[in-house]
Design brief:
With 411 residues, this protein is an alpha+beta fold. It is built from 10 helices and 10 strands. A 4-stranded mixed sheet has the order 1-4-5-8. A 4-stranded antiparallel sheet has the order 2-3-7-6, covered by helices on one side. Strands 9-10 form a two-stranded antiparallel sheet. Strand 9 (268-269) and strand 10 form a beta hairpin. The longest helix has 37 residues, at 230-266. Bound molecules: coenzyme a persulfide. Coenzyme a persulfide (COS) is lined by residues 125-126, 132, 134-135, 178-179, 231-232, 235-236, 238-239, 312, 361-363, 367, 370-371, 380, 382, 386, 409, 411.
Length: 411
């Protein structure tokens, strides 16, 4: 049986997140967007009421919420302001590899830091020359006795300028492509520098920075999982977090849909509210469908995780559809507002700018299509022992990578 009924706890959480978005985020969201200021006050409040670190297990001080609950929260925060929502949710991206591959001691120490105080962590995968193509990274980690020494720069790092620790992916075997990447937890110290804060088109309340590791030494026990298995850890992490990103995108689309619907009922042209003109009414109808369908895919991708199933395919369906829909819906919302939609005094142009990043970060919409195409054309059992690479595999992979766009992502 398929049942879309939320539990009482999930309904309460959604209400909590909605009220927070309505009272704490919405009234200031457009100011933060204009000024590009850092929303520390909102972070403190969100942490206080339990809207951050929601997937951290109780053993490490978190609430250990299910993935569907996380998506409900993300939709509400995205509805409030997706830039602030991204800021609040980025700890989840940094924590996921730790939760999957960290030792008990590492989890206690670093997840505990996030749940004891409103501290932040960042996920460091992307580099200037390694966006969609993760295996092209140049950052290195060299084992020296009981330490690793990390060197390299990571770009487009969410919350990078304010993070207390980082999940860093680095080459431990430069010749081995994706099989030579390892993941580490790296605490902030003097060898970690924040080189650049980006001035962005949208989501201007979120901090996006370049972070450089200069001979940064970390204890060997900060390795996450096995050495040279970091690529899979990154892919598993994205399977975990893409449903939440899809939730944020649904929130943006819903906000744009609501603004446009209201406006279309108030704005009178040719003697009637513009909602009475079929051209406008059909745009509103399409917005409603996209919000609804995006939410259903988002929920499904989260529920699969909650059931302990692999969600790679559905997470990419959800992420790409919700992100593309958020873009389409926000562009149409500007259209419904007409000339006013282009003016900053009105709310929808911000949503249009914010929506763009949803098609870029955590894997572009083109990368999601690449994952979907591979999953439907050539499904792989990733838990099975490693197969010998066949010529056919090589040919198909080569053909797909030729089609893959070299677009960059934001971490
Ligand atoms: N879970 C576990 N393992 C996975 C996996 C998943 N979801 N997806 C792929 N793998 C494994 C594969 O099974 C393969 O394993 P073997 O080494 O045993 O063969 C390995 O990882 C490499 O997979 P693949 O051949 O598909 O890797 P590609 O280099 O072709 O890259 C894409 C695949 C493009 C999908 C990947 O690099 C990607 O997602 N890029 C976008 C990165 C991104 O989102 N960046 C944003 C920054 S983070 S905010």
């Amino acid at each position: 049986m398929v049942d879309f009924t939320l539990t009482d706890e999930q309904k309460d959480l959604r209400e909590l997140a909605h009220n927070f978005a309505e009272k704490e985020i919405r009234p200031v969201a457009w100011d933060y967007d204009r000024d590009g200021t850092w929303p520390q006050e909102i972070i403190n409040k969100a942490w206080e009421v339990g809207l951050m670190n929601v997937h951290v297990d109780e053993a490490y001080g978190g609430p250990g919420l299910d993935h569907l609950s996380g998506c409900l929260i993300e939709e509400e925060l995205g509805w409030g302001c997706s830039g602030i929502g991204t800021t609040l949710m980025a700890n989840g991206l940094a924590s996921a590899p730790l939760m999957i591959g960290g030792s008990e001691e590492t989890k206690t120490k670093y997840l505990g830091m996030l749940t004891e105080e409103p501290k932040l962590a960042s996920f460091c995968l992307t580099e200037p020359d390694a966006g969609s193509d993760v295996s092209g990274m140049r950052t290195t980690a060299v084992r020296k006795g009981d330490k690793y020494v990390i060197n390299g720069s990571k770009c487009f790092i969410t919350n990078g300028g304010y993070a207390d620790w980082f999940t860093v992916y680095a080459k431990t075997d430069k010749e081995a492509g994706h099989r030579g990447i390892s993941a580490f937890v790296v605490p902030k110290d003097d060898t970690v520098t924040v080189d650049k804060k980006e001035d962005k088109l949208g989501q201007r309340a979120s901090n996006t920075a370049t972070i450089t590791f200069n001979e940064t030494e970390i204890p060997a026990e900060n390795l996450l999982g096995e050495e040279n298995h970091g690529f899979k850890l990154a892919m598993q992490t994205l399977d975990f977090t893409r449903p939440g990103v899809a939730g944020l995108a649904v929130g943006i689309a819903r906000a744009a849909f609501e603004f446009a619907s209201e406006y279309s009922k108030e704005r009178v042209q040719f003697g009637v509210p513009i909602a009475m003109h079929q051209a406008v009414a059909f745009m509103i109808a399409d917005m409603a469908t996209k919000v609804e369908a995006g939410r259903l895919l988002t929920w499904k991708s989260a529920v699969l995780l909650d059931q302990g199933q692999r969600n790679t395919l559905v997470a990419s369906h959800a992420k790409r559809f919700a992100a593309d829909s958020a873009m389409e819906v926000t562009v149409d919302a500007v259209q419904v507002y007409g000339g006013y939609g282009f003016i900053k005094e009105y709310p929808v142009e911000k949503l249009m700018r914010d929506a763009k990043i949803m098609q870029l970060y955590e894997g572009t919409s083109q990368i999601q299509r690449l994952v979907i195409a591979r999953e439907v054309l050539m499904p792989r059992n990733i838990d099975a022992p490693e197969p010998e690479t066949t010529k056919q595999d090589t040919d198909v992979a080569a053909a797909q990578s030729e089609q893959a766009p070299a677009t960059a992502e934001v971490a």
